[in-house]
Write a structure and sequence with these properties.
Length: 267
């Protein structure tokens, strides 16, 4: 866990590890009580790196320097990708590759976090396979979900649901988006970031998404190639901070942070 300043200089470090366990794709969020919540998918392995079991784990911290003991949440075998907080509750989609489906979970992962909707999107219901990584944003009582897919047409899906978020309608976005991240700008527009295909290459792109028409508009390609993407987005006043990884320098994966003027991005 790195604490950095706006220039990207590392100020403090903390380490969380478990024996013989791969803590995959950690995500941070701020709980309604102001704590920092860390989630990760824990893949326990043997000496031959074979998977012995998987589970979703979470930790909390007040400062990011010292962390609580872990707590298991959600369901074994379902990878809870990211948590978004809204009106005191956390929401997140979990996926299972063999089931070709995603389930929506809600609650507080440190207390009670349960399945909210089963098969919100699935091959069985919607005829499109392998939904997986995701992000959710809220506009008052409407939720928008962006879902990556890695089967058949490989096209991402935009889901829309109104409170209590039990019924979802889906629109095909007609393009691939890996490691999707989404940030609301206003009631009709969101920033989308992720791995996209540009001239036959996989790169990390910044796009805008019209939430009413589901139209994606490419705005910027970040320096990236090879193994890349999985961005994080933070908007502070008029500055968009994007953290992502890429292997475009010397074919070695490195983490990058960039600062973008939001007014210039969406002109």
């Amino acid at each position: 866990m790195l604490t950095i300043n706006n220039a990207g200089d590392v100020q403090k470090k903390a380490l969380i590890d478990l024996p013989n366990t791969d803590l995959r794709d950690p995500k941070l969020s701020i709980t309604p009580s102001g704590q920092i919540l860390l989630i990760a998918y824990a893949r326990k392995t043997n000496s031959e790196n074979r998977t012995l079991g998987t589970r979703n784990l979470c930790w909390v911290s007040q400062t990011g320097e010292s962390w609580s003991s872990f707590k298991e949440f959600a369901e074994k075998g379902w990878w809870l990708w990211r948590i978004t907080w809204h009106q005191g509750l956390g929401y997140g989609f979990a996926y299972n590759r063999k089931r070709n489906a995603i389930n929506l979970f809600s609650g507080d992962p440190r207390r009670s976090f349960h399945r909210h909707v089963s098969s919100a999107f699935s091959l069985t219901k919607h005829g499109k396979g392998y939904p997986n990584e995701s992000d959710i944003i809220f506009n008052k009582q409407t939720a928008y979900a962006l879902i990556r897919r890695d089967a058949d047409s490989y096209t991402a899906q935009l889901g829309v649901s109104h409170f209590p978020y039990k019924n979802w309608k889906w629109v095909d976005l007609n393009r691939y988006i890996g490691g999707p991240a989404m940030l609301k700008l206003n009631s009709g527009l969101a920033i989308v970031a992720g791995r996209i295909i540009k001239k036959g290459k996989l790169v990390t792109g910044i796009l805008t998404l019209n939430l009413k028409t589901a139209k994606l508009t490419e705005q910027l390609i970040l320096p990236s190639k090879g193994d890349n993407s999985y961005p994080g987005l933070v908007l502070k006043e008029t500055k968009l901070y994007v953290c992502y990884y890429s292997s475009h320098e010397d074919n070695k994966s490195s983490v990058y942070m960039t600062q973008i003027d939001i007014d210039e991005l969406i002109e």
